[in-house]
Amino acid sequence: MNEIKLILNRLLDKYEQSAHFNEPGRSNRRVLIKSSENGLPEYDYQNVNIRDAFNAAIRDLIEKKVIFAEWLPGRKQLVVKELWLNLERLETSYTLAGRQPLQNQIDTYCSLLKALDERVNTPWLKMFLTAQAEKLSSADRLSGLYKKGPAHFADLLNALEHYDRLDDSGMTMRAFSIACYHDSKYFEKNIRDDFLAIARAYGPTLAELLSDQNLSDREQLAYLGIYACPEIYEFAGPLAIETKDGICDFSSLSRFGCAVTSTAVFGIRKLHMDIVDKIVFIENKTNYNEYIEKAHRNDELVVFHGGFLSPQKKKFVSQILSSCPAYTEYLFWGDIDIGGFKMFSQLKNLAPGLIPWKMGAMEVERYALLGLKRNSRYMKELESFLALPENAVFADTIKALLLYDVTIEQEVMLNDL
Q1: Is 221 found in the same domain as 110?
Q2: Are 370 and 417 in contact (CB under 8 A)?
């Protein structure tokens, strides 16, 4: 009977939040709910069918000696006033309620966390699993993820374990969902939000990325290697791609630009770029388009960088860098702001010889009147960048930004190409 489970679960919830649970023997107060104070709002005594169903359940529970009840006096029909648990029959109450005692639930969740921790290798996943197991082991109640129930939690751990197995090629979100649940939409509908909350809290690179970039859930997942659809990588210049099916030469499209998908990247055997002596990575799409139309040289490869590199795009960029002649010059052109500095730093990890282009103090001074005003919090964060060794190349630039109290978007430079 649903009324029996509802009554017992409401009382057991109260018990698990009481001194009887946290400090057994300390309190002599009843674990009690009152129908008149929203302790049991479902008990609509004016509706005869509802009242009779609940009254039958209450009598059944009294007969089983798991609860006690007090009825309102002077009523023609019995109306319950309050209910309280028989603390000497808790085991029976849990059984009838269809739930495990709280400590048993905590122990089960801890065991699942520790077992998965032994099977995964991704650092931020291990950090989450270890931290949660430690937190739960001393908890006196369940909250957050655990309030959603063991089935949801098991599904979440399933997603985390499958994510740990992903290789650099990543996977589409629907394929990932099928691999986890045999249902192409289950992950996005039911698990994605909790998955991303964990990644943001324990994955340092994603957390750092989001400190300056406003990314949608799908963009965040793509950064982690789970993408809604294949990414498109645009470039222009004397580049030929060799696959097992042959060689495709893109050189004749240099003035217009061309693209490959992220899925195609994993079929590349070799990149031919023998005459390239400079590679220009451009963050902004409009600037990329204008540059290849107005300023592109025959001996340079121009790559649309876009935002922060996903694992798939990192692979493509790494393929380009490893195929360049030794004398190749690498340039990065981005917004003169925190995001641009972070993107430069990420790319420099792949191309140690990378140098910034049009991102100096001279550009700040020249375009200051067209700069973007920032709040004091942003400028303080910008000032903290001066102390980071990786930002030494931007020291004069940052000082100029602080002086003029602006940041510079690269679009304002389009007329000077």
Answers
A1: yes
A2: no
Instruction: List, for residues 42-56, the tens digit of each pLDDT value.
Output: 998 889 999 999 999
Q: The tokens of 232 are what?
A: 């498109």
Please give the structure tokens belonging to residue 128.
């989450």
Spatial strand order in the sheet of 32-34 = 32-34, 80-85, 67-71
Contact 243, 267 (CB under 8 A): yes
Kindly report, residue by residue over 218-271, the tens digit of the pLDDT: 888 888 889 888 889 999 999 999 999 999 999 888 888 999 988 888 889 999
Q: How many residues does the chain have?
A: 417
| Statement to judge: residues 81 and 113 lie in one domain | no
Order the strands of the 270-272 sheet from edge to edge: 246-249, 240-243, 270-272
Final residue of a structural domain among 97, 116, 137: 97
| Residue 322 resides in a domain | no
Encoded tokens for 382: 């910008």
Q: What is the C-alpha to C-alpha distance for residues 408 and 339, in angstroms, rounded to an integer?
A: 11
3-class SS of residue 297: coil
Instruction: Name the residue range of residue 249's domain.
Output: 230-314
What's the pTM value of the predicted model, to 2 decimals? Answer: 0.65
The reply to whether 219 and 238 lie within a common domain is no
Contact between residue 270 and residue 259 where contact means Cβ atoms under 8 Å apart? no
Q: Are 192 and 180 in contact (CB under 8 A)?
A: no
DSSP states along 216-279: -HHHHHHHHTEESS--EEEEESS-EEEETTEEEE-GGGTTT-EEEEHHHHTT--EEE-TT--EE
Going from the C-alpha of 109 to that of each of 53, 100, 311, 369, the distances in angstroms are: 35, 12, 32, 57
Q: What string of DSSP letters covers 10-28?
A: HHHHHHHTSHHHHSTTS--
